[in-house]
Amino acid sequence: MAKEELQKKVDLAFLSAFYGGLLTDKQRQVLSLHCEEDLSLGEIAEEVGISRQAVHETITRAASRLNEMEASLGMAARFRRMESGLEEALSALKQQDYHRAEDLLTGLLALDQEDTDGL
Q1: CA–CA gap between residue 45 and residue 10 (Å, rounded)
Q2: In which element (H, E) is residue 110 found?
Q3: From the CB of residue 16, how many other CB atoms can be counted at a distance below 10 Å?
Q4: Who is most buried in 42, 70, 71, 99, counting CB within 10 A?
């Protein structure tokens, strides 16, 4: 599998963790088989009892819905920013750079407050 295709699957699975509840049951099932179980379109079609074309369309619609939700809400991007900031703060603490850790954590709290105010 090409690196680009693998990254697309990882990104879809990541978005699904945030917004999967907004998909239909069939979209969630097909996406899970595609991203998490790494089944081919043919294998998914056989498992679910639909055509390969229907599997492809279901994945496309689900991906579109997930991307729309992320564009609107930005929860996955926010999570990644927070995770990155926390990792940096932890690194600073391990290096006993308490001032830098405090600055990073203060920045994350401000970011969290901005995000909360925007909702």
Answers
A1: 21
A2: helix 98-118
A3: 22
A4: 70
Question: Collapsing DSSP states into helix, strand and coil, what is residue 42?
Answer: helix
Single-letter amino acid code for the residue at 33: L
User: Could you give the dihedral angle defined by the CA atoms of residues 85, 91, 92 and 95, in that order, rounded to the nearest 10 degrees?
Assistant: 180
Nearest-angstrom CA–CA distance, 32 and 23: 12
Q: Residue by residue, what is the 3-state secondary structure of 70-90? A: HHHHCHHHHHHHHHHHHHHHH
pLDDT tens sequence across 25-43:
999 999 999 999 999 999 9
Cβ-count burial of 19 within 10 angstroms (0-12 exposed, 13-18 middle, 19+ buried)? buried
The structure's pTM equals: 0.82
